[in-house]
Design a protein that fits this description.
Helix content is 42%, strand content 14%. By secondary structure, the chain is α+β, with helices and mostly antiparallel strands. It comes from Rhizobium calliandrae.
């Protein structure tokens, strides 16, 4: 019973900290979840943790460095927007935010929100990375 409770607690922790793991890949997420689950709940915890970690890991793949460099080099546009909502990795940008395609890689787009450059997934408008 104690192992079951600890296993559930570990899963909750992994899922609650999804934004921290948002820039992980599926493999990293699954491996990390399995390791955490194994420590807390043994083999059953490893299986459950691996699945939970894979789910979190597939949320968002980090953009390649050339995409980051491209976005950092672009001038801040005149139509940049200030929004009240916090810009968070994994959440979509509001519709009023103008996003721009990245010519070399159409899988990614970018926007300038609250004076910060963000890389987004164009179809869902989901924030992939906030550049500092």
């Amino acid at each position: 019973m104690k192992a079951k409770v600890l296993g559930i607690a570990a899963i909750s922790l992994v899922l609650a900290s999804g934004s921290a793991f948002a820039q992980s890949s599926t493999v990293t997420g699954a491996a990390g979840g399995a390791a955490t689950g194994a420590v807390v709940g043994g083999p059953v915890g490893a299986a459950i943790g691996g699945v939970a970690g894979a789910i979190v890991g597939t949320a968002i793949d980090p953009p390649p460095q050339r995409v980051v460099t491209y976005v950092e080099e672009q001038p801040i546009p005149d139509d940049s927007v200030v929004v009240r909502e916090k810009v968070v990795v994994g959440r979509p940008l509001p519709e009023r935010v103008v996003i721009r395609q990245i010519p070399e890689n159409p899988k990614y787009a970018y926007a300038v929100v609250n004076h910060q450059r963000v890389i987004v997934e164009p179809q869902s408008r989901k924030v992939i990375r906030v550049l500092e």
